[in-house]
Each structure stands twice: as structure tokens, then as C-alpha cells.
Specification:
This protein is an alpha+beta fold. It has a single domain, classed as endopeptidase fold (from Nostoc punctiforme) (Alpha-Beta Complex), CATH 3.90.1720.10. α2 crosses α3.
Length: 149
């Protein structure tokens, strides 16, 4: 699989965002329900992992099948951040969470590697300011990088 293809497909979703007020975006709900059959989900449910799972599902790539961001630390092949390519999965620690990547049951965030500029890692991901977007994060938050092929 061409890593840039993963990224190019994911880019098509930039701008998808949560609904306003009590209205849920049906696309976000579809992403959430792909791996969680609960009927009480809303687009207020953290959906960063749902987005990455959806892109992997579209391309028939391995996926975590979980809404937990850190579940991606068990999928694919580990890659050092210095060797990350566009489309690799990057898992981040969430503020206050353990910085230990072996702790899977803890808060996190996940997205697709876009680029690294200095100490900032840019991820294309869902649920970033309630939308699919590219956002920069401090590289010290990176718990792991995974290649899905």
C-alpha cells in the first residue's frame, strides 16, 4: 500500500465536523458505529480512533476496531518517529495520562502522520477541534508510530 494513498484518501474528509447543538453529523455517527454498535452514540463521543478505523476500513487495512486511541499501539508495525511517512498512524498521550505506551487503558489521541517541523508533529485526524483537520502537537506526546501495511 502506498502510504501517500492512505493520506490522500483521509484528506478528502478534511472539513467533516460535528453537528451544531443537538444535531449529530451522520458521517461521524457512521464512523463511530463501524466499531461500536451502541445506539446511544453522538458526535460528542470522542471519535479520533473512529476516523482512523474508518480510513483503514475503506482501504482494507488492519485496524484496531476500537474507539480507544491507544488501541492503535497494537496494530501494524512499529516505526520510529524519525522514519514516519504520511499516512502512518501516530498515537499521542493525552494531558495527565501515563507516558507509558504499554498502558493501553488510558486517555490518548490518534491521527495520521502529516509532517514534522522541529518539535511539532502534524496529524491529519478526526475530532481535532470537533472536525477532521491537520493540527500540530508537541512531539514529546508521541507514544508510538505504526505502519498499517
Amino acid at each position: 500500500m502506498n502510504f501517500s494513498l492512505i493520506y490522500r484518501i483521509a484528506e478528502r474528509f478534511i472539513g467533516v465536523h460535528e453537528g451544531v447543538g443537538t444535531i449529530d453529523n451522520p458521517m461521524v455517527l457512521s464512523m463511530l458505529r463501524l466499531d461500536n454498535a451502541t445506539s446511544h452514540l453522538t458526535d460528542e463521543t470522542p471519535w479520533c480512533s473512529a476516523f482512523v478505523n474508518y480510513i483503514a476500513w475503506l482501504l482494507r487495512l488492519p485496524r484496531s476496531k476500537s474507539l480507544a486511541a491507544r488501541s492503535w499501539l497494537t496494530v501494524g508495525t512499529p516505526v520510529h518517529l524519525s522514519e514516519a511517512q504520511q499516512g502512518d498512524v501516530v498515537v499521542l498521550n493525552r494531558a495527565g495520562g501515563p507516558a507509558d505506551p504499554t498502558v493501553l487503558n488510558a486517555p490518548g489521541h490518534v491521527g495520521l502522520f502529516s509532517s514534522q517541523v522541529g518539535s511539532m508533529v502534524y496529524l491529519l485526524g478526526g475530532n481535532q477541534s470537533d472536525a477532521v483537520s491537520v493540527v500540530g502537537f508537541d512531539a514529546t506526546r508521541v507514544l508510538g508510530v505504526r505502519r498499517l501495511v
